[in-house]
Amino acid sequence: VRLVDSGGGLVQPGGSLRLSCAASGRTITNYAVGWFRQAPGKEREFVSAINWSGDYTLYTDSVKGRFTISRDNAKNTVYLQMNSLKPEDTAVYFCAAARMSIKYGLDPHNYDSWGQGTQVTVSS
Asked: What is the pLDDT of residues 41-61, one digit of tens each?
């Protein structure tokens, strides 16, 4: 499956962005999908994940209450709504997918398809 992530940009602290992860090549209906981010000089870190049906989600503590992951299987797309953005959210954001239980979703090594990344910069 091919993933294309988009929606990044420059936003002021406190602002919002919505990232999209569009899949092609095959349906991701049975896939868990995750979002990861990587800041300069840092390792890639888990942000959020959603199970195949959308009724179970995971978030890293630093984004709980601010970010919301969702999916529209009819559109083969997963979204990450990011509100109350902070400068420390600045990173390249990647979506990833795999046919697996979401319980494996925190580890990037468990995903076999990745988007190309979209830059999110939070700065005044």
From this structure: 999 999 999 999 999 999 999
